[in-house]
Design a protein that fits this description.
five-stranded mixed β-sheet; 5 strands
Length: about 130
């Protein structure tokens, strides 16, 4: 039982580090951080950012191996639905941002021996 807890805790810590690196990576490309790890009853959004024209809801996925598919494949219809609902909650709580069009991006990371992490950024990965 303790082994499961350690594995889950380690996985959670790795996820937090990858999300932090994703935020920095996106900020280096001109996006501005609005919020991280937004939670509501409908779900969670890893990162909320703003580019010049959009409010961007970002789902970050990390896979150390492709045994179960890559990170992009794991953002299925069920996950997309949860993200839509969480984004709607966020917009209800932050009405001042309602004037911005929204987009859902996915950041997928995998280990890279040369740079640490290899990123795949899918802008407007799915629509509402």
């Amino acid at each position: 039982m303790l082994e499961k807890w350690r594995t889950k805790r380690c996985s959670h810590q790795i996820g937090a580090i990858v999300e932090q690196k994703a935020r920095r990576w996106l900020q280096q490309r001109g996006l501005q951080l609005i919020a991280s790890n937004y939670h509501c009853t409908a779900g969670e959004i890893d990162i909320i950012m703003r580019d010049d024209t959009h409010l961007v809801f970002v789902e970050v996925r990390y896979r150390s191996k492709n045994s179960f598919g890559d990170g992009l494949e794991s953002v299925d219809a069920r996950k997309q639905n949860k993200l839509h609902k969480a984004a709607a909650c966020y917009l209800l709580e932050n009405a001042a941002l309602n004037f911005l069009p929204c987009r859902f991006d996915v950041m997928a990371a995998r280990p890279d021996n040369h740079t640490g992490l290899h990123w795949t950024w899918i802008k407007d990965a799915f629509t509402t």
